[in-house]
TrEMBL record:
<keyword id="KW-0238">DNA-binding</keyword>
<dbReference type="InterPro" id="IPR036388">
    <property type="entry name" value="WH-like_DNA-bd_sf"/>
</dbReference>
<keyword id="KW-0319">Glycerol metabolism</keyword>
<feature type="domain" description="IclR-ED">
    <location>
        <begin position="83"/>
        <end position="266"/>
    </location>
</feature>
<dbReference type="Pfam" id="PF09339">
    <property type="entry name" value="HTH_IclR"/>
</dbReference>
<keyword id="KW-0805">Transcription regulation</keyword>
<comment type="function">
    <text>May be an activator protein for the gylABX operon.</text>
</comment>
<dbReference type="Pfam" id="PF01614">
    <property type="entry name" value="IclR_C"/>
</dbReference>
<dbReference type="InterPro" id="IPR005471">
    <property type="entry name" value="Tscrpt_reg_IclR_N"/>
</dbReference>
<dbReference type="GO" id="GO:0003677">
    <property type="term" value="F:DNA binding"/>
</dbReference>
<dbReference type="InterPro" id="IPR029016">
    <property type="entry name" value="GAF-like_dom_sf"/>
</dbReference>
<keyword id="KW-0804">Transcription</keyword>
<dbReference type="GO" id="GO:0003700">
    <property type="term" value="F:DNA-binding transcription factor activity"/>
</dbReference>
<dbReference type="GO" id="GO:0045892">
    <property type="term" value="P:negative regulation of DNA-templated transcription"/>
</dbReference>
<dbReference type="InterPro" id="IPR014757">
    <property type="entry name" value="Tscrpt_reg_IclR_C"/>
</dbReference>
<protein>
    <recommendedName>
        <fullName>Glycerol operon regulatory protein</fullName>
    </recommendedName>
</protein>
<dbReference type="InterPro" id="IPR036390">
    <property type="entry name" value="WH_DNA-bd_sf"/>
</dbReference>
Length: 274
């Protein structure tokens, strides 16, 4: 955000400012509360932003009048006000995994040229709720609504990434572990053992476990409470997805999943409740 700084934060009268400049400065004051300090002094923020002290005081008062800031009458410091909470709550209430993810999933497919899926957990399956075909030749595209067993899909493993060994055994106690290919994991013990690697690296691999000739990487998506709410996966033929390419796509899937998680409120603390 760009705005002209005052010639001196403390000396002389504050210069007049345009409406746009005032708005920029007011927003900058609000953004100064993104740190760990719950309360801030007007003088500290004015120095940090290069604002004249009288300008900063006027902005703080205006923001407090609108409920964006609240003044502590005991020490004169300010903290974020109830209007910020109300707007944040409205933002979170309007979040929709599919809607928020759509542009990110399409961007990932365009950047990497491979097919991208957004999946959610349902029973013992990972189900595709959004599918984007890649731009490269020979695409192996999952259909919308396709179900793939958790034990043989990258998305399924990513959806289970936070479960410890005991939780995995409970979740998959009734799973048949049917073999779809020669690479499918067919017993619970092996699956639980391999999930340790998934948890350690933060992403999952399907190496021809659900379909011959197909490799898939997937990363978990988290909601504002930190719970895994979905998975973003990137898939392609094995002749294109060699080990170095798998690592590249895994990193890209993780970046996109992390960005989506942030847009869903993850990483800001569980301050909104249920």
């Amino acid at each position: 955000m760009s705005y002209a700084t005052d010639p001196s934060p403390d000396d002389g009268p504050a210069p007049r400012e345009s409406g746009t400049q005032a708005l920029d400065r007011a927003l900058s004051v609000l953004l100064a509360f993104r740190g760990t300090d719950t309360e801030r002094k007007v003088s500290d923020v004015s120095r940090e932003l290069g604002l004249h002290k009288s300008t900063a005081s006027r902005l703080f008062r205006a923001l407090a009048d609108a409920g964006f800031l609240h003044r502590n009458e005991e020490n004169g410091n300010y903290r974020l006000g109830v209007t910020v909470f109300e707007l944040g709550a409205r933002y979170l209430a309007g979040l929709d995994l599919h809607g928020v993810a759509r542009p990110l999933v399409h961007r990932l497919a365009e950047e990497e040229g491979e097919s991208v899926n957004l999946s959610v957990l349902e029973g013992l399956d990972a189900i595709s709720i959004h599918v984007v075909q890649g731009t490269r030749n020979l695409q192996l595209v999952s259909r919308l609504g396709r179900r793939i067993p958790l034990w043989c899909s990258a998305a399924g493993k990513a959806l289970l990434i936070d479960q410890d060994d005991a939780q995995l055994r409970a979740t998959l106690a009734t799973a048949p572990f049917t073999a779809l290919t020669g690479n499918t994991i067919t017993d619970l013990d092996t699956f639980v053992s391999r999930m340790a690697t998934v948890r350690q690296q933060g992403w999952a691999l399907n190496d021809q476990e659900s379909e011959e000739g197909l490799r898939v990487v997937a990363a978990p998506v988290r909601d504002r409470h930190g719970r895994v709410t979905g998975a973003i996966s990137v898939s392609g033929p094995i002749f294109r997805l060699d080990e170095p390419r798998v690592a590249e796509l895994a990193a890209a899937a993780c970046r996109t999943a992390d960005e989506l998680s942030r847009q869903l409120g993850y990483g800001f603390g569980d301050v909104w409740g249920d």
